[in-house]
Amino acid sequence: xxxxxxxxxxxxxxxxxxxxxxxxxxxxxxxxxxxxxxxxxxxxxxxxxxxxxxxxxxxxxxxxxxxxxxxxxxxxxxxxxxxxxxxxxxxxxxxxxxxxxxxxxxxxxxxxxxxxxxxxxxxxxxxxxxxxxxxxxxxxxxxxxxxxxxxxxxxxxxxxxxxxxxxxxxxxxxxxxxxxxxxxxxxxxxxxxxxxxxxxxxxxxxxxxxxxxxxxxxxxxxxxxxxxxxxxxxxxxxxxxxxxxxxxxxxxxxxxxxxxxxxxxxxxxxxxxxxxxxxxxxxxxxxxxxxxxxxxxxxxxxxxxxxxxxxxxxxxxxxxxxxxxxxxxxxxxxxxxxxxxxxxxxxxxxxxxxxxxxxxxxxxxxxxxxxxxxxxxxxxxxxxxxxxxxxxxxxxxxxxxxxxxxxxxxxxxxxxxxxxxxxxxxxxxxxxxxxxxxxxxxxxxxxxxxxxxxxxxxxxxxxxxxxxx
Length: 469
What we know:
This protein is of the alpha/beta class. It is built from 13 helices and 23 strands. Strands 3, 4, 6, 7, 9, 10, 12, 13, 15, 16, 18, 20 and 22 form a 13-stranded mixed beta sheet that branches. It has a ten-stranded mixed beta sheet with strand order 2-1-5-8-11-14-17-19-21-23. β1 (120-125) and β2 form a beta hairpin. The longest helix is centred in the first third of the chain and has 16 residues, at 47-62.
């Protein structure tokens, strides 16, 4: 029997299962003012949101398609289904979630994770949040964790959302930010009051089930002074043979001396275009910690940005990317130093095999008034064969001489000597290579929540099958 040699042959049933959709729930593909108004009416948008959607559509139509990264020529946005009605509205009781959707999230382990280790969970299925719940003691501390659309209609939070929504990532930022502004749906709203330190994480999981659809969730998190939050984001989709699109948006506001840790594992199927935008604004003495694992999608453009806006603000980005056959993953981070004595650090690992392409793209900007600032960038790439590719594209714009800036990059392959050494100890060649890859990724996996570190190791194991033979 011939040994499996491609990733597509491997059993990915944990992610590739799917349920048939009722196409009558689709609003239709394409981008027109009529569809935007239908989405807005379906949501019961306030006037300002409906106007923002239509303004974003106008910007989208006038903005050129991005052309500086991996090709997205095969993505026809006019054929993407932008909105899918759900069978029921958002629930806070798991028993009220429709059965097929419940089975989806049970297969992904979400209810179990909520019971064992989470302070609150949100679950999005296609275009809508279907479940949101937070522990009673967390809510009593003043923490708000709910779906963004309901919060937008709550008089306690309506003005806060209006004053923050798409202010960090305006529709003019790029074409897919404008697309998001026009068709966004679902997502979470988190507010942590002054002095509250939430030691147990919150988690949102985004599942795209429908064929040929897009997911456009919006996550808005606001931390007041001296607060702490760890927010975990997971994403997946089953495999189809036509393009899907993820163009979500994450806006994070970190208050004075507050700390936000934002962990993500993206395991989209390999027909997906992941064109997500994430950005954080960090006040004096505050800190943002990004932990990112990118394993899926056909093409990714993903560069979380940290704007260090107050003196002593800090940012750290820790990421790992695994590009296999048919994948071109263009990822990295951006750091903007807007104030004195700010600091940033990027530490990334990328792995490519079977012709996969990994590109690390970073940007460090230090403004004239950001004297005493420090930034260090470290990226390492591991190629598992001779047909894969890895590139590093750093950009640095330093406008003061009173700054300490460093960049280090390493690219290499698994050495035959290392493999031979492990094989001489009775380990198979395939497991030896997988061990070397896991060791290479170890400092990143240590930063992930336990269940996600285990998932990352499982994914590496899956991808390594077929890397020889």
